[in-house]
Amino acid sequence: MDAIVAEELRKRYKDVQALDGVSFSVRDGEVFGLLGPNGAGKSTAVRTLTTLTQPDSGRAIVAGEDVVQHPNRVRRAIGYVAQDSGVDWDATGRENLLLQGRIHGMSGAPLRSRVDELLELVGLTDAADRIARGYSGGMKRRLDIAIGLVHRPRILFLDEPTTGLDPEARAAMWVEVERLAEQESLTILLTTHYLEEADRLAERVAIVSRGKVVVEGTPEELKANLRGELVTVEFADIDGRIEEAHAIVERLDGAQEVGVDGRLLRTRVPNGAQAIPTILSALEERGLPVASVTTARPSLDDVYLHYTGRDFTAEDEEGKR
Amino acid sequence: MQLLRQTGWMIVRQLRNLMREPVWIALMVIQPLIWLLLYGQLFSRVGALRGGASSYIEFLTPGIICMNAFFGGSWSGMAMIADLDRHVIDRFLAAPASRFALILSQVVRAGITAVIQALILLLLGLALGVRVHGGVLGWLVVFGAASLLAMAFAGFSHGLALLLRREASMIAAANFVGLPLMFISAILIPPRQMPHWIAQLSRFNPVNWGVHAARNAVLTGGHWGATGLYLLFLLAAVAVTSSFATWCFRSYQRSI
User: Fold this and answer.
1) Which among A31, A96, A236, B231 is least buried, having the fewest CB atoms inside 10 angstroms?
2) Is the pLDDT of residue A320 over 90?
3) Distance of alpha carbon A270 from alpha carbon A252, whole angstroms
4) How much of chain A, in percent, has pLDDT values that exceed 70?
């Protein structure tokens, strides 16, 4: 059975079409990644699926229940860890967890032992009775996750779990998420605008761009669709001759999807090691000064470029504004 | 049952968090005393203001108790803004927390604060020679008027908080509503001394319902029927504003 089904979700805020027909499904027990740049509509999709807000149209089934018709049934089955921490700063970590458990109707000894277990799980046992105001960013994040897990949900939503964390804390969080998926036998939907994060954690991903899912599949499937390797040539000083370089490379055997961007030229070839000497000699023959050449197996970055025709990083920066 | 249990735990949360704010506790105690002493001195020589009381301070004490209660209620929505800003509300809303329990807990918290302040003010009043002519029932009526008034305005304030969602807007709105209501009321002067149109207008002012109830209890210890009616009006106002605030969650959820 599918844990989450989203069908044609649409949602408009004043002048922004945040969701423009989003559809995807998440299988029971998998870690699913919604990947996209800032402003693509990932958080709106999550807020719709967690019953925080309602779609203008479309349908969403979470844990077998319609999010609009039976929001409370959905709420009992899910844990939600928002992008912004929902920790009550004036309460201790333990008090935060106890209150959340009580909202879910838990009480007494079972609640207390569950809270102890979670504090242990996220490594906050020693800090449990300190006021959360004094917690570090990473500690608050771990407390947020514990709060989302108090009632043993079947499905956990993690909205940008590592945004704002330093690289070390991010790596620790990745290990944490992998462990949770296993130990608590959870279905996890996580959103991220880090390509490497989706690649590392998600068994399947859906790439979201401008309120739509552009493609859905395992990271391997998506990358396999882009045959060959990406070769990037950087010129030292091209002086407006980039179009000339473009034309030269395009004539070469096996060079596909040739594109230029400033002093960079990119092309996709079946085998990078064989293609590079041919490309270099063709360019140098015409006196075009090459500064460096790199070759790469396709990344989700390339997948994004391939399916949206836009550069991920540039789009991400734009979304932040 | 679930509603009451959730409300109870959320009240515990709020009171516990407040108890961790020493500055807040100090101000909660000191502020009403300043009002009472300041206004008591300011108008003490104007004999016409007494409205049948043996001293102006006796006339003023129930008024200041009500002013304090409704100011406290009007500002209580700031707590909701803080919870919205820290996304604590989102976390509750994505769990099966009752929206009404979220509001009711804040409203009751405002009522409890108002009763504590009313007690402090009455004790200071006693020290300054005020007598509660209504006896034990009189004390209870004063506490009832203070808590209901605070709760009625707390409901309104939390609704505004959910609609405005910004501190600056909230401060402007609370002043815009609060100060006129204070001056169109018998807090500082008896209705007899007001211009006719203000006296008429003040009859529809919920603040005034509380002031009349509390003043009957302190000054005369009579008119229990009218006093009871005022308290009923206030109770109705609490129901209306709390429902309004609960309804305002819709507006908030549409915006996120």
Assistant:
1) A236
2) no
3) 12
4) 99
- Chain A: residue nearest B89 by CA? A86
Spatial separation of the C-alpha atoms in residues B121 and B127, rounded to whole Å: 10
pLDDT (0 to 100) of residue A252: 84
Question: Mean per-residue pLDDT for B203-221?
Answer: 94
Q: Where are the domains of chain B?
A: 2-255
Residues in chain B: 256
> A103 — contact with chain B (CB < 8 Å)?
yes
Whether B88 contacts chain A with CB within 8 A: yes
Start-end of CATH 3.40.50.300 domains in chain A? 2-220
Q: Which CATH number among 2.60.40.3550, 3.30.70.980, 3.30.365.10, 3.40.50.1100 corresponds to the domain A227-297?
A: 3.30.70.980
Number of residues written out for chain A: 321
**DSSP letters spanning A116-155:** HHHHHHTT-TTTTTSBGGG--HHHHHHHHHHHHHTT--SE
Homologous superfamily of A2-220: P-loop containing nucleotide triphosphate hydrolases (3.40.50.300)
Cβ pair A80:B256 closer than 8 A:
no
Mark yes or no for CB contact B254/A54 under 8 Å: yes
Distance CA A192, CA A175 (A): 16
Contacts of A35 (CB under 8 A, 6+ apart): A42, A191, A192, A193, A195, A198, A202, A205, A206, A207, A208, A300, A304
Q: What is the ipTM of this complex?
A: 0.91
pLDDT digits (tens, 9 = 90+) for A4-23: 999 999 999 988 999 999 99
Which tokens go with A263? 């002093």
Helix locations, B43-166, DSSP H: 56-75, 77-85, 88-93, 99-127, 135-164
Greater confidence, B66 or A262? Answer: B66
User: How distant, in Å, are the alpha carbons of A183, B66, B119, B132, B142 from that of B135?
Assistant: 64, 19, 14, 6, 11
**pLDDT tens-place string over residues A205-224:** 999 999 999 999 998 888 87
Report the interhelical angle of B77-85 vs B135-164 (nearest 10°). 40
- The candidate with the shortest Cα–Cα distance to B141, out of B56, B232, B80, is B232
Q: Which is it for strands A264-269 and A229-235: parallel, antiparallel or unpaired?
A: antiparallel
Per residue in B13-22, pLDDT (tens digit) is 999 999 998 8
Mean pLDDT of the A118-139 span: 94
Cβ–Cβ gap B87/A85 under 8 Å: yes
Residue A188's beta-bridge partner residues?
A31, A156
The two structure tokens encoding residue A14: 């004043």
pLDDT tens per residue, range B75-89: 999 999 999 999 999
In chain A, CATH 3.30.70.980 sits at 227-297
Q: Above 70 in pLDDT, residue A34?
A: yes
Confidence (pLDDT) at B213: 96
A47 and chain B in contact, CB less than 8 A: yes
Q: Which residues of B touch A51 (CB under 8 A)?
A: 93-94
Query: What does the mean pLDDT of chain A come to?
Result: 89
Q: Which two tokens stand for residue B232?
A: 């009923």
Is A87 in a helix, a strand, or coil? coil
